[in-house]
Design a protein that fits this description.
The structure is a single chain. The protein is an alpha/beta fold. The chain has six domains: 104 residues, 3-Layer(aba) Sandwich (Rossmann fold); 202 residues, UDP-N-acetylmuramoyl-L-alanine:D-glutamate ligase (3-Layer(aba) Sandwich), CATH 3.40.1190.10; 141 residues, Alpha-Beta Complex (Protein-Tyrosine Phosphatase, Chain A), CATH 3.90.190; 85 residues, Uridine Diphospho-n-acetylenolpyruvylglucosamine Reductase, domain 2 (2-Layer Sandwich), CATH 3.30.43; 125 residues, Uridine Diphospho-n-acetylenolpyruvylglucosamine Reductase, domain 3 (2-Layer Sandwich), CATH 3.30.465; 79 residues, Uridine Diphospho-n-acetylenolpyruvylglucosamine Reductase, domain 1 (Alpha-Beta Complex), CATH 3.90.78.10. The chain contains 24 helices and 39 strands. Helix 2 crosses helix 6, helix 7 packs across helix 10 and helix 16 crosses helix 17. The radius of gyration is 30 Å and the shape is globular. The mean pLDDT is 88.
């Protein structure tokens, strides 16, 4: 690989008129932070990520060019001076492969971050636990003390506006950075000073054992140019630092240079209040909003460091007091008079134990914990420790392991961990999916409870969903809708969307409504609009992919018989409700001797969905035969539109993104029923001969101008390509089928793989035709 040395890297960063820096995995927290630093320095940035997210959008808002999907086009369009990757990026990544083929310089993220740090006065925060919070707190305190530091934190920090910032040096500017030990890149850093929080048996997928971890930290300490600050409560660190000249200790240990002593807060504030002693004298009292003994120790690290730089204790205390933490570190997502919801990144047994112990300090009636194991290797290695670390939780739910690209290990999964906790006497249940997890926790909630979601994977989705649900007061909305709607209307909580889509995947809808009349549709729409409650209109569920997290707010289904009428009118016209199935419309046209609607026979949807998507088949599209349509806005106002008034596009009717389609009048031409039937049979034979009968959403991709999407997939040899339970149909390359076990994530990953191959091998950017919604 075309790896560059630190000296070569400095030259590349300073090269005038060179190209941009290309970031692979630009949406990751660490990589997007690096992107912001480069933009601050004045360099242009390009990049890619497997999926678009807020971090990508944040970089784009500042002028970076970030593509969704790892396409080689990102290098071909703007040849970079440098390509950056992290350990999370597989070595067969297509962007990385093309960069190597073309001789583009390549560097790991940590080496580039270290190169930027060398330009200022660097301080690294390292340790297995707590480094994100401590880095963020130090950067925040330095900012409050008027030093405006540069910084790079491994999580979003709301009070710092973003997770990384470069401030052009004026004098000796501090650069505070979180230094990651998980992949062997700690050695890239040679900071002026460093704070070491702890050494632990962690990242055993990389390190050979604890001794290997200790050697990594000892070597790093030897690279620090001025001062090392370390926690005296960690016996391994005490041993490692014994031979480091000038090393300064902090902690609860009576022998620490800066000794910490917890104290009662006379103001009754939530958080930790503590004294710090130095040289036999008490520096003063300090307060942090963060909970628990470990956060008091981390705050003391910042106190010791700042005092060592000459700041007065009273100024340090003021600088710390208002810090509210980093994202996913004891982050409070919801609080009302009944319950509180926290989201935490803890995924190691010691982190879990410390977090639950800290949450217990809130004085809750009950502490509920939801845990997602992170990596199969970590779960196996710490199975015994995980079985006993939830002692401060009154009730626990365990969900399936977040693989983080690892292959499953036999007999190591969420169910096994649940059984191990139960053997130790814990009140624990297994929730196979995040949707199950959220639903089970919500049902169990009682007034006075505090619930904390723990894990480094995507369990944060369930935490945010529950918080949003509680904030939206969905129980109250459900009761209101029950009062508004006529008896017999289908009204359900947590309705699985897998039951309501032709792909048979997707998490639950918070509230599902199937009205029995247009009046009820109006009542639902008005309530959602007035309450600010999201409302998603659902037809038959074809051409739709609902993500595994489900749909927040209300899903409004128009499939009741009262909304699915089909009436034959004079002049070759059919008046159809939004819920009418298209094959029913085609059959009615045949019966009435109306031609021109035969193409609808094979489209697996309803009238409302066909109007919204301008669905088509066999060379015809829905709006070819529309004479007029009726819609309702979200305030319940009904209007009729002539076809000429409505703008339509390929596979889209933009107006219906904001309006509910209630129905349409289709106009054909007089024809003999036998002729119409013959054409329908012809279309049916063509369809059955080329399209799969298995569960699908219809065509996944829009046809590009170059050639039909199905042919393109076939030419690339991708028929039969599988991810989990999702497979590219062998009958038609533009169909993805569900073998009965697929998740939405399987299908999304398969879509991404096809898009990457098409971009890399054919230079064609495939756009999805299927509508992708949900969390």
């Amino acid at each position: 690989m075309n790896q560059v040395s630190p000296r070569q890297l400095d030259a590349l960063l300073d090269a005038p008129e060179a190209g941009p820096v290309c970031l692979i995995g630009a949406g990751g927290c660490g990589m997007s932070g690096l992107g912001h630093l480069l933009l601050d320095v004045g360099l242009s940035v390009t990049g890619s990520d497997v999926r678009d997210n807020d971090s990508c959008r944040s970089l784009r808002a500042r002028g970076a060019v970030i593509q969704a999907g790892h396409h080689a086009k990102v290098i071909k369009d703007a040849p970079p001076r440098l390509v950056v990757y992290s350990s999370a990026v597989p070595l067969d990544n297509p962007v990385l492969a093309v960069a190597e083929q073309r001789g583009v310089p390549i560097v790991r993220r940590a080496r580039l971050l270290a190169a930027l740090m060398r330009r200022q006065r660097g301080v690294c925060v390292a340790g297995m636990h707590g480094k994100t919070t401590t880095t963020a707190l130090l950067a925040y305190a330095l900012d409050r003390l008027g030093l405006s530091p540069s910084f790079a934190v491994g999580a979003e920090v709301p009070q710092l506006s973003r997770q990384a910032r470069w401030v052009e040096a004026v004098g000796e500017r501090w650069f505070v950075a979180e230094a990651d030990e998980s992949d062997g890149t700690l050695g890239e850093f040679h900071p002026d000073q460093a704070i070491l929080l702890n050494v632990d048996e962690e990242h055993m997928d990389y390190f050979a054992g604890l001794d290997d971890v200790c050697r990594e930290f000892a070597a790093f300490a030897g690279q620090v140019r001025e001062q090392v600050w370390y926690c005296a409560d960690d016996p391994r660190l005490v041993s490692l630092m014994a031979g480091v000249p000038g090393a300064v200790s902090f902690g609860f240990n009576p022998g620490a240079d800066y000794r910490v002593e917890l104290a009662a807060d006379t103001r009754g504030r939530t958080g930790a209040y503590f004294f710090v002693w130095h040289g036999g004298a008490r520096l003063g009292g300090f307060y942090t909003r963060l909970l628990g003994e470990k956060n008091a120790s981390n705050a003391a690290a910042v106190v010791a460091f700042l005092h060592g730089q000459g700041f007065a204790a009273t100024d340090i205390a003021r600088a710390l007091a208002e810090f509210r933490g980093a994202a996913r570190r004891q982050e409070e997502l919801h609080r009302d008079t009944a319950v509180r919801v926290f989201d935490d990144y803890g995924h190691h047994p010691r982190e879990v134990s410390a977090t639950l112990r800290a949450i217990r300090e809130l004085g809750a009636k009950r502490v509920l914990a939801a845990f997602q194991p992170h990596r199969y290797t970590r779960t196996r290695h710490f199975l015994k420790e995980f079985s006993t670390c939830f002692g401060d939780a009154d009730r626990l739910w365990v969900t399936e392991v977040y693989a983080a690209s690892e292959e499953p290990i036999p007999d190591i999964d969420g169910q096994r961990l649940t059984e191990e906790v139960a053997r130790q006497g814990g009140a624990v249940e297994f929730a196979p999916t995040l949707a199950d997890l959220r639903a089970q926790v919500r049902v169990a909630l009682q007034p006075g409870d505090v619930v904390v979601f723990l894990g480094a994977g995507d369990i944060t989705v369930a935490a945010h969903q529950l918080a949003a649900e509680l904030s939206m007061k969905l129980d109250e909305h459900f009761e209101t809708l029950a009062d508004l709607l006529v008896p017999g209307t289908v009204l359900r909580r947590d309705e699985p969307m897998a039951k309501r889509t032709t792909l048979r995947v997707g998490g639950p809808a918070d509230i599902f409504v199937e009205p029995q009349s247009e009046a009820d549709v109006g009542r639902v729409a008005r309530h959602c609009a007035e309450a600010g409650l999201p409302c998603f209109v659902l037809g038959r569920g074809s051409n739709l992919l609902v993500r595994d997290g489900g749909i927040r707010g209300v899903v409004l289904s128009l499939m009741d018989e009262a909304l699915a009428r089909v009436e034959v009118k004079a002049g070759g016209r059919l008046e159809c409700g939004a819920g009418a199935r298209l094959n029913t419309v085609a059959a009615a046209a045949k019966q009435a001797g109306i031609g021109g609607l035969e193409f609808m026979e094979g489209i697996p949807g309803c009238v409302g969905g066909a109007l919204r998507m301008n669905a088509g088949a066999m060379g015809a599209v829905t709006f070819d035969v529309v004479e007029s349509l009726r819609t309702m806005d979200m305030r319940g106002k009904v209007r009729e539109w002539w076809r000429e008034e409505v703008k339509v596009e390929y596979r889209s009717c933009p107006m219906l993104a904001e309006h509910i389609a209630l129905g349409a009048v289709f106009c054909g031409q007089e024809a003999r029923s036998e002729d119409v039937g013959a054409r329908m049979k012809e279309f049916s034979l063509r369809r059955h001969g080329s399209q799969p009968k298995a569960r699908s959403a219809g065509c996944i991709f829009k046809n590009p101008t170059e050639c039909p999407a199905g042919r393109l997939v076939d030419e690339m040899g991708l028929k039969g390509l599988t991810v989990g339970g999702a497979r590219v149909s062998v009958e038609h390359g533009n169909f993805i089928i569900n073998d009965g076990t697929a998740t939405a994530e399987d299908i999304l990953r398969l879509i991404g793989l096809i898009q990457e191959r098409a971009e890399r091998e054919q230079g064609v950017r495939l756009q999805t035709e299927v509508r992708i919604v949900g969390e």
